[in-house]
Amino acid sequence: MQKIENSIEKFGNFHPDKIILTSLIVLGRSSSVFVSGLFDKHPNFITLPSQFYPTGLNMKKSLDNIAQECYNEIIARSKRLVGKINIKKYPVEIFKNCFIDYINNFGLSRKNVFIACYYSFAKFFKMDLQQIRYIVFDTHLIVKNIKWCISDFKNIRFIVTIRDPRSNHLSLKLKGFAILCLGYIKEMYSIYTQIAKKYPPSSIFILKHEDLHTQYPVVLDRLCRFFDVKKTDALNYSSFFGLPYDAAKACYTRSSTNINSSKPDPVYVDEKWKESLSSFEIAFIQNHYKSIFKDFGYKWYDPFENPKFMIYQEVFKPLTKKNIDSSKGPKRFILNSCLKIAKIPILGYIFIFSIQLIYLFLRYTKSRLRCAMTRI
Predict the structure, then answer these.
(1) Multiple choice CATH, 2-268, 3.40.50, 1.10.3470, 2.30.29, 2.60.40
(2) pTM, whole model, 2 decimals?
(3) Residue-wise pLDDT tens digits, 321-339
């Protein structure tokens, strides 16, 4: 009994039975790293940008080796996510001492190793261990992290970050990850639906990317009520390791807008997807993420209201709304007929794609002939 009381006094709320894990469930590029950084300087939270959960560690190694491996993972991942870190401020030997001290008190387990990492950095940051109540952990798209978090922690809450799937697709497309993430986001959504069935609504906070950047005062009030914490100026901007978060220094989290701010900003919210995605892409995304649109209240958009067909990022001008509206007689009839065929699932895409290829081939042939004629 005396040992437990001493542990509580020494480790504060970092006792495995007291600390509450807040896991971010990420549905796409929805400012999740930015969100986790909002809690960096608040006295009731500790957060790291590492996205590291000790799922693959060999627990048979010495504590010194385990601590070294955890430290290396956290620093390496943090550099990738937020840029340069002054490692001199966080000596590995001090980390090891705090880490081993924690494990010796509470035992070696995956959960305790995870908490020990945050405890060690809390000591680095000279935080009041009695005030810290939450560990904020960005699981990102690492599915196994979420599953182990749910398995290991009974005291757990969730922040679900979500963004308009069409805007998210454009952002991923600009970063080169669009196709790769189609399955991941669906899998994360599936996990969210399981969590929504298992946990009460009071333990799940839905945070839309659009609300975060356009209605932050309202979002901030909701967050403070959700966590039952006081509102402080520290919650007005995102930071890590005490420094304002600047995604420009990290290629992995850099915004596709090429604009960077450590504060919520409406500049991150737009509808450029209407101009930058083809009608087929919009139609596909809306059908692929139909359940997400329904659950999170995103409005359906008629992709053929302002038809846009592209091949190799080039807009197919004959079937643009402007060209159809300006056409008359048989030409208008033919273009409208093509548009109706385009709306037929799968067949429409094959039809338009074939026309586009023929159109580009003829245009290319015409330009080559013209070039040849000028040489004669």
Answers:
(1) 3.40.50
(2) 0.84
(3) 777 888 888 888 887 887 7
